[in-house]
Design brief:
By secondary structure, this protein is α+β, with helices and mostly antiparallel strands. It folds into three domains: 157 residues, no CATH class; 52 residues; 147 residues, Histidine kinase-like ATPase, C-terminal domain (Heat Shock Protein 90). 48% of the residues lie in helices and 16% in strands. The chain contains 13 helices and 14 strands. A hairpin with a 4-residue loop joins strand 5 and strand 6. The longest helix has 51 residues. 23% of the residues are buried.
């Protein structure tokens, strides 16, 4: 079903209106079915009521048959005591039995029913059974052919002051003289369901379930109309997040929900989403080009300056040589700062999307420590068979920064421990030292760019970008970072990489 091209408010209102029309139509059909018998008010099909009510009426009819009319009210008393409702009786063709408790409206409706074969009085050879299984009436002294006639309609009425609910049936009952009486048998209840006697709740439940099912089927295409583009939008967003797709993807742009062909709110959001992604793509491309340009323009003169001052240092002596050495130290610090800043910008801009490749952590960590700190006291512990699927270059940048930080701030206090272990659903790599730790007030700000806190005075030479780079690279690889002081002394950084999604090869 094709929906009109308009906004979601109009679509939702129109669809809801049509649903109400559908339910109203079903209700009208049901009412037309209920209000049978040429539209007589309060006359309902017998099938709407519980079979318990029919069984009770049949038992009452069987107990009254072939008894004196004067005894009928007395014969009703046991049924009134046994049933959860009160039973009333009134003859319609004579004034022999009259019950003023029955509403006049119900009596009038009963009199309007056409006198036909409607009856609960069977041929004498029919045997009745009560709900408990005992025989209430049986007579075998007639050779008359018999058969149960059609079930008459039910009379259902609600009266006010006090509130009462009435269920009545017209029956043909023979008395002791074999004279047939047209009788209205009415049941009076304080509740609409007659305490379970009038209505079959199971049938009512099935009717409600059918209506709800139809309403659900009616709303299903509209919900799909709304949810399908949202699911695709979420899919495209996840693909862009994990660098699996680009804004220039032609398949993406041909989708009518994102190309502007759809004019409602979802179409406008999709079109704006595509436009935003294209602008972000252009911005990131420009940022990456800028970083490459800056890296080239800064590293080249710094390298030349270092080379030239190194040659000059060898030719000088005394104070002049000392001054050249000071300049060299400043240039080296500037070079380190430039590398850290460029590495930070590179991690933020995601110049090279992380790859997913298997990494043997035991050999990887051992070779990294051997290359970064061959003479330092660094211990590597890796659980047997621990492997990680992630970007090797990103992981090397992460561990190298953590190792340099640990050696710089706590190398003199004892060994640095690097441990890799497998936990439930994730791989954890921890770097722990035995240093003085980090002041508690500085912990929340450690990952902020260029933040050094008290370490700036006690350990000069850092840039404050190490943990920022570690955090961005870890998150780019699908993991997250944790750190805290350990007791009695030391500081630990933990890297949590999930064993699912991007980290599964």
């Amino acid at each position: 079903m094709t929906l009109p091209r308009c906004n979601l408010y109009v679509k939702l209102s129109l669809w809801m209106l049509l649903n109400f029309v559908l339910l109203a139509t079903l209700g009208s059909v049901l009412c037309c079915y209920v209000m049978t018998n040429k539209g007589y008010d309060g006359i309902l099909p017998a099938s709407l009521f519980s079979t318990r009510a029919d069984s009770s009426l049949r038992v009452i009819s069987a107990n009254l048959q072939y008894h004196s009319v004067l005894e009928w009210k007395e014969l009703l008393e046991p049924h009134t005591r046994r049933l959860p409702v009160r039973v009333h009786l009134q003859s319609l063709d004579t004034e022999s039995i009259r019950d003023p408790g029955i509403p006049d409206k119900m009596v009038e409706q009963a009199r309007k029913l056409p006198r036909s074969i409607y009856s609960f009085c069977p041929a004498p050879e029919v045997m009745f059974w009560d709900p408990m299984g005992s025989t209430m009436f049986a007579e075998q002294n007639s050779n008359v052919e018999y058969g149960l006639p059609p079930v008459p309609p039910a009379l259902f009425l609600h009266t006010e002051s006090p509130s009462r609910y009435w269920l009545g049936r017209v029956m043909y009952i023979p008395d002791g003289n074999r004279q047939i009486h047209t009788v209205l048998v009415a049941m009076e209840s304080d509740t609409v369901d007659g305490q379970g006697l009038f209505f079959d709740l199971k049938a009512l439940g099935l009717l409600v379930a059918a209506i709800l099912g139809i309403s659900f089927l009616w709303w299903l295409p509209f919900v799909r109309h709304l949810s399908r583009p949202l699911r695709r939008m979420a899919k495209y967003a996840e693909e862009v997040e994990f660098d699996k797709s680009s804004c220039e993807d032609r398949t993406f742009l041909r989708d009518k929900d994102f190309s502007g062909a759809r004019t409602d709110e979802i179409g406008r959001v999709g079109h704006a989403f595509v436009s935003m992604m294209q602008r972000m793509n252009r911005m990131l491309t420009g940022q990456r080009q800028f970083i490459r340009y800056v890296a080239h323009e800064l590293n080249t003169p710094l390298a030349k300056a270092q080379m030239g001052l190194g040659v000059l240092e060898c030719k000088l002596t005394g104070d002049e040589r000392f001054r050249v050495q000071q300049v060299l130290r400043h240039i080296k610090r500037l070079s380190v700062l430039t590398e850290e800043v460029l590495a930070y910008l590179q991690a933020k801009a995601s110049m090279t999307p992380p790859r997913s490749e298997p990494v043997d952590l035991c050999s990887f960590l051992s070779s990294l420590v051997q290359g970064e700190a061959p003479e330092e006291d660094v211990h590597v512990e890796v659980d047997a068979g621990v492997r990680l699927c992630t970007d090797r270059d990103y992981l090397q940048r992460i561990i190298s920064n953590l190792l340099r930080n640990a050696l710089h701030y706590a190398g003199s206090y004892g060994p640095v421990h690097i441990r890799a272990e497998a936990r439930e659903g994730e791989t954890v790599i921890s770097v722990r030292d035995r240093g003085p730790g980090v002041p508690e007030e500085d912990l929340p700000l450690l990952c902020e760019p260029f933040f050094r806190g008290r370490a700036a005075s006690t350990h000069p030479g850092g840039t404050g970008l190490g943990l920022s780079i570690v955090k961005d690279c870890t998150e780019s690889c699908g993991g997250h970072l944790e750190y805290d002081n350990i007791r009695p002394q030391g500081f630990e950084v933990r890297l949590h990489f999930p064993s699912r999604r991007k980290n599964v090869c």
